[in-house]
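ESCALATION

Customer reports they have been waiting on this structure for their group meeting. Please prioritize. Original submission:
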Amino acid sequence: MKLIKLKIESRKAKEGLVRLVVLCIMLAAFPFQLIRAQTFSEWFRQKKTQQRYLLEQIAALRVYAGYVHKGYGIVSDGLQTVRDITNVEFNLHGFFISGVSGAATRNPTKVY
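Update from on-call: job pushed to the front of the queue and completed.
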């Protein structure tokens, strides 16, 4: 009976050791990020810190607005190109149809 208890206890100890090793490997495998808490200026110079953060956000939004403006220009140019192509194609079809209809009514000929 003691032998069975010893085997069970040794098995539990091995399982616990395996879990500990797996946990250590998992912790070593995942890189840790730097943990940032509030800085001194965030505690004691809140107004200046908030103004600095807002200025950073404004600068980032201006950069983003530049990207939006540039993208809008690209899309606008592309749409104008599509409009030009469709207008040319439409005019060519119109010229063809007016030429065909004019030819059919000008000189009617009988075909026997």
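Sent to customer with the following note: The chain has one domain: 7-32+44-102.
Escalation resolved.
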